[in-house]
Amino acid sequence: MSIPNETLPARPPTLRWHGGVDGYLEILDQRALPGKVVTLRLDTSEDAWHALRNLAVRGAPAIGLTAAYAMVLAARTIAPSSQAAMLIEHLRMQGDYLKTSRPTAVNLEWAVDQMIRTAVTERAVGVRQLQQRLLREAHDLLEQDCDICLAIGRNGIPFLKPGIGVLTHCNAGALAASDHGTALAILYEARRQNIAFHVFADETRPLENDLV
User: Fold this and answer.
1) Which 8-state DSSP code applies to residue 107?
2) Parent domain of 191
3) How far apart are CA 101 and CA 181, in angstroms?
4) What is the C-alpha to C-alpha distance for residues 86 and 75, in angstroms, rounded to an integer?
5) From CA 8, how far away is CA 53, in angstroms rounded?
6) pLDDT band at residue 206 using 50, 70 and 90 as cut-offs
């Protein structure tokens, strides 16, 4: 569950789904930050592939969640009157395609495989209901990620002593996940509890303009 936070500045959500099975995924284009806020609308699995490949989405949890919703986008291209076997075969093909966008992204592969497992397990319900079930599964994965990140923050507080220096590396903040962040969730929780600390950010890289 998302916990309102009065001490941290407001920020756009990293990703959110609009509507039902026929809806779309909206993501925050992280390439434009911090100069401006730009969102992208993803209507197809191809849209998601390009967003993942071109680093509009960053951070392991956010990559995985984008892939999960991309599988929903892929699933809805199959006609409701089709056989479940056709939908599952299509999901496997689209899953392999999505994995090529970021071959080293473990969360992406896990999320794709989880969506396929859901389709296989519940194939008897029919294609239309299966498409709806896949959307619920993607929503569940987002909710689980939010709860896990929140738990990381709360459980990590005992390791953060007042005045401590923290070295950060790579994408671990709230924008890298559904909410709260992963490792940085501890720092967000510390801020809520008014614990003072110093942060040393040791990595930042310009985005190459020739990504395709």
Assistant:
1) H
2) 1-212
3) 23
4) 10
5) 30
6) low
CA angle, 84 then 91 then 48, to 5°: 140
More confident residue, 34 or 200: 200
For residues 171 and 160, give the distance between their C-alpha atoms in angstroms, rounded to a whole number.
Answer: 19
Nearest to 114 by CA among 77, 146, 70, 78: 70
Closest CA to 49 of 34, 35, 69, 32: 69
Of the listed ranges 78-92, 107-121, 191-205, the one predicted with least confidence: 191-205
Query: Which CATH number is 30's domain given?
Result: 1.20.120.420
Print burial letters for 53-91: b (CB count within 10 Å at least 16), e (below 16): ebbbbbbbbbbbbbbbbbbbbbbbebeeeeebeebbebb
Q: According to the model, what pLDDT value does residue 168 have?
A: 83
Candidates 198, 177, 179; CA nearest to 187 is 198
From the number of C-beta atoms within 10 Å of its C-beta (0-12, 13-18, 19+), residue 126 rates as middle
- Kindly state the percentage of the chain with pLDDT values over 90: 72
Specify the pairing of strand 164-168 against strand 39-42: unpaired
Domain count, the chain: 1
Sign, CA torsion 188/26/23/68: negative
- Please give the Cα distance from 129 to 182 (Å, whole number): 33
